[in-house]
Design goal:
The protein is α+β, with helices and mostly antiparallel strands and 206 residues long. The chain is 28% helix and 28% strand. It has 5 helices and 11 strands, in the order αβββββαβαββββαβα.
């Protein structure tokens, strides 16, 4: 019977198999480590801009008794509260609509942001939150200013706005569109009181 003689070149030398396995495992660990590193870098970049629906104003709404709104054209309106009744400064012909005030406190004062857009003051103009472009909202407790914020609707995103608190560099994106509620027109906030029809007695006296 013929016998086969294995050439030394085909004989696996002791330790050669482990050597190749260790080398392959080393490359695999390096590749895995690189992918893991890139994943955390990507997550860090995303977390830099994604918020968690934090509140715009950290305020007790009940202490607010004066609101001043000023737009980029210089038009402004002042709303003030006496006891529990809101009025428009220098406008006695209009009665403030409860629906508008309630919506303002619910959506604006109680509003949230969902994203940080920038921490660079050089980007203020880009987002329209510089002192020239946006709408300025100032709220007071008596005559003490407790919050001052610039809002902007710059861009094509009509479902959100941008805002920046005065004295802070950070630009945020609101969770929803609030810009239309920062109206400086008296007719938006107030309406003429309904005339009470004369009673039968009044008509008789006349």
């Amino acid at each position: 019977m013929a016998s086969w003689i294995l050439s030394p070149m085909f004989v696996c030398q002791p330790g050669t198999k482990n050597k190749y396995m260790n080398k392959s495992l080393k490359y695999l660990l390096i590749a895995f480590g690189t992918l893991l590193f890139l994943y955390f870098i990507n997550q860090g970049q995303q977390n830099k801009y994604i918020g968690t629906s934090e509140t715009i104003f950290d305020l007790d709404a009940d202490i607010i008794n004066k609101i001043i709104l000023k737009d980029s054209s210089g038009e402004s309106i002042t709303l003030f509260k006496t006891d529990s009744v809101w009025s428009i400064l220098d406008n006695d012909s209009l009665v403030v609509k409860d629906r508008q005030i309630d919506q303002f406190f619910e959506k604006v004062i109680g509003g949230t942001y969902d994203m940080v857009m920038s921490k660079n003051p050089n980007k203020w103009v880009t987002f329209g939150v510089d002192t020239v472009s946006g709408k300025l909202l100032s709220v007071f407790q008596d005559d003490k200013l407790i919050a001052s914020t610039i809002f902007s609707n710059k861009g094509q995103d009509y479902a959100h706005n941008f805002y920046r608190n005065i004295g802070v560099d950070i630009v945020y994106r609101t969770s929803e569109n609030l810009f239309y509620m920062l109206n400086t027109r008296p007719s938006y906030w107030g309406s003429k009181p309904k005339e009470t029809p004369p009673t039968a007695i009044d008509s008789k006296n006349n």
